[in-house]
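Appendix B, example 12.
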Amino acid sequence: SSLPEKKVIFKGLIVNKEDMNKLMLTPLIHYPVPGGSALVTFEDAKVAQRIIEMREHVVELSCGDLDELDQCRVRVQAVPVEILLPSALEIRLTQSRRRILLSALPSLDISKEALLDKLELFFSKKKNGGSEVESREFLEDSDQVVLTFSQDGVAEPLIEKGHIQVPIGKGKYQVKISPCMSGDISNLQLQPSRCPRTVLLLGIPEVLSEEAMRDALEIHFQKASRGGGEVDALAYVPAGRTGVAVFVEDTG
């Protein structure tokens, strides 16, 4: 199926010269969760596999302060969670002629907007090697700033300098200037990958409140006598609603 366009930030760590051509990707997968289902992440992958192999589970629900005769049960289906991960990736990089990337910015007791004003004022002056600034912005989840000039030919000389002293308040701070690269994915190949510790539960009827149902599911699936184990996380989406789960790299 076709994939929606998504802006991403690639972060890499250069350890030595041999690693300079390597690209490190950190998974951040948005997974749609339908109504009447739950995602359960166990601490042990073996428990998740056991729950999937059992397939059908009968969960006892306590409906308020009722006696044992008024206990109700629901049957839910446990299935694996499979997501698509890149197996091959080709990116075409282009250096912008009007943009520069500013990093190694000082940590000051001023707002980001005030810092952007200072940077724009400095780099808009010809005596500092700059020109009229068309736009400025902080990169998402980053302490780096992208400045866009209104004219060509301004970015290259600044990039060649590499560093520049910028006066901010009562001090001067050395700021690093780098080229601003934009990347287009020219080839992307995906392969399915199964989440080792997470199970998707389907067919959950809306017979309890959201909190009560979440508690009942967690109690059931953490009991070893029912094939379960310690639950690391549980997300429940009631029938008639939809949710989105975010999967990150499993470092545990």
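Residues 8 and 124 are 29 Å apart (CA to CA). The longest helix spans residues 112-123.
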